Amino acid sequence: MNIRQGFVLREVMGSTVAVAIGEASRTFHGMIRLNSTATQLWKWLENGATQSTLVEQLCAEYDVDVDTAAQHVDAFLSTLRTEGVLEE
Amino acid sequence: MNTIEETLREHGVFVTTTVGVSMEPLFKNRRDTVEIVPVTGRLSKYDVPLYRRRDDYVLHRVVKVLPDSYVICGDNCIGKEYGITDEDIVGVMVAFDRKNKHYTVNHLGYRLYARLRVAQYPLRLFWFKLRQQGAKILHKARAKK
Predict the structure, then answer these.
(1) Can you tell me the distance from the alpha carbon of B89 to that of B43, in angstroms, rounded to the nearest whole number?
(2) What pLDDT, in 10s, does the model give residues B90-142?
(3) I need a surface site. Which of A58, A67, B7, B40 has the fewest CB within 10 A?
(4) Which residue is closest to B33 within chain A, CA to CA?
(5) DSSP A62
(6) Strand, helix or coil at A76?
(7) Closest approach of A45 to chain B, Cα-based (Å)
């Protein structure tokens, strides 16, 4: 599971957005705004994290229980799948 | 997904990759990204607005400001567009990432580039016409053979 090639992060006006360049930009024309947690999850995904390691890392990084972390990760991955950003 | 206008209204910024060759050498097709914000007031010469041209969105440079419109031209273009009004303008570029390096439009190097590019227009036009004439002569010569 990884971020599809061609998606990059940009810092704009104090927040992070993901946009497509290269071939990915032929099918993805918008931008995805990421909060700080989503940005962190994105970066972990770029480094090859699995769904379970994302949950573990979220629990380790933030003061959240496993269920809450799992919900956040599920929602995040679901958004990426819907937008065609995730490569599985 | 929201339209560009909706995104600008909702988030105050729109980031996208650049498509096409009309703004080379500054931007290469689908390599670089630009940061667009809503316009406040009139544009200035050398600004790079995102504007609507029929069903398309175009990102070119203001080369002349008129009382009620703008003259706009891509950095790699010969044809100028006239009659672009404030109503056509969706937003203006305030920063960009070129080869993954970030610049704002206030970057000295960029400001010099923009002025040089616009000043070079007569040379670009001359070179374009020279190549066009050359191609015509070559075509005629080949037709005679």
Answers:
(1) 9
(2) 999 999 999 999 999 999 999 999 999 999 999 999 999 999 999 999 999 98
(3) B40
(4) A21
(5) S
(6) helix
(7) 20
How far apart, in whole angstroms, are the C-alpha atoms of residue B140 and residue B145? 9
B104 interfacial to chain A (CB closer than 8 Å)? no
> Given this model, what pLDDT does residue B125 score?
93
pTM: 0.89
Q: Give per-residue pLDDT as tens, A50-69.
A: 999 999 999 998 889 999 99
Chain mean pLDDT for chain B: 95
The two structure tokens encoding residue B4: 């560009």
Range A57-85 burial, b when 16+ CB lie within 10 A, else e: bbeeeeebeeeebbebbeebbeebeebeb
Count of C-beta atoms within a 10 Å radius of residue B104? 11
- Complex prediction ipTM: 0.84
Instruction: For residue A11, list its beta bridge partners.
Output: A16
Which of A10, A23, A26 minimises the CB distance to B33?
A10
Whether residues A8 and B100 touch (CB distance < 8 A) is answered with: yes
CA distance A10 to B16: 10
